Amino acid sequence: MKHLLSLLETSEQDIQDILNLADIVKAEVKQGIYKPYLKNKTIGLIFEKNSTRTRVSFEVGAVQLGAYPLFLDASTMQIGRGEPIQDTARVLSRYLDGIMIRTFEQAEVEALAEYGDIPIINGLTDFAHPCQVLADLQTIREYKGKLEGLKMTFIGDGNNMCNSLMVGALKTGMSFACACPEGYLPDPKCLDFAKAYGDKFQLTNDPMEAAKDADVILTDVWASMGEEGEAAQRKAVFEGVYQVNAKLMEQAKSDCMVLHCLPAHRGEEITEDVFEAHANEIFDEAENRLHAQKAVMVLLMQD
Ligand code: CP
Ligand code: NVA
Fold first, then answer.
1. Residues 214-260: pLDDT tens digits?
2. What is the catalytic activity of this protein (predicted)?
3. Catalytic machinery residues
């Protein structure tokens, strides 16, 4: 594995290796052990969108590994004034040992990987959110003891989370159902990938149908970062139907987990009662961003 661009390009074995190492580094930290796996390394963290979890977990994770993280606000970099990503990639490759980037276009992340010669980690694009989904898989495995054979359901917008969950679930032996409204379907590349899994994959417009017998249900905001201008129009489409609420949970298995990448909009994609009933799972999921990303950094950046 040279980069983490999306889970489509990440092999099943690499996903398992990340999850296994994530469990190890988590156990080490719980015992107060901080091994300097990345001593003297540097990682640049480029943000073209807001972040709480991704920024803090990457900064803290790098420090715990003995590396030095640089927070790089894209609006104050020359990329913010039009310097091409191809040149930025070649310059930063001379200084840094790795880059995490949060941006809009997946093509930008791919260009960094193509023109630079250091590992590139996708910290969220409009297309994918692989770091989040690795943390989600780690959390499900912690609670359920396995991934193989479980059913994951996603309710809502066919966005970056839906795309990455679909690929991550199917690559780890889970079945995947998603309920998205017409016009808000997942990316065609991910749908093509998923269709090869036959009846382990289901796409529907009906949340109740998708939630049937689920082991874990996930949802995400109706309007993602960059889509703020469409928020009212999206609300009109999603409201009242594409919501994780008590009635939907009745369709799922009685021990069904609920996860949310956060930030959550209570009363929109998830109700307050369901969110709070599953808060332990959701905040363990948030914590696992730290451990899963430390595993990614080690596997990509260690000598
Ligand atoms: N879930 C997630 O990526 O959170 P942030 O936007 O706060 O980084
Ligand atoms: N789909 C959301 C995820 C935020 C972590 C967004 O892209 O804004």
1. 999 999 999 999 999 999 999 999 999 999 999 999 999 999 999 99
2. carbamoyl phosphate + L-ornithine = L-citrulline + phosphate + H(+)
3. 102, 129, 132, 220, 261, 289
Distance 171 CA to ligand 2 centre (A): 22
Tell me the two tokens of residue 50: 């807001």
- What one-character DSSP code corresponds to residue 185? P
Question: Within this chain, do residues 167 and 117 fall inside the same structural domain, yes or no?
Answer: no
Residues found in the chain:
303
Could you tell me if 254 and 241 lie in one domain? yes
CATH of the domain at 110: 3.40.50.1370
Look at ligand 1, atom 7, and give the residue with the nearest C-alpha: 52
Into how many domains does the chain fold?
2
Identify the bridge partners of residue 176 per DSSP, sorted by sequence position.
152, 201
**In terms of residue numbers, what domain contains 22?**
3-129+289-301
Phi/psi for 44 (5° steps) reads -95, 135
Instruction: Examine the domain organization and report whether 250 and 213 are in the same domain.
Output: yes
Q: Which amino acid residue places its CA nearest to atom 1 of ligand 2?
A: 224
pLDDT tens-digit readout, 28-60: 999 999 999 999 999 999 999 999 999 999 999
Using a cut of 0.95, tell me whether the model's pTM lies above it: yes
Q: Do the Cβ atoms of 85 and 115 come closer than 8 Å? A: yes
ipTM of the complex: 0.99
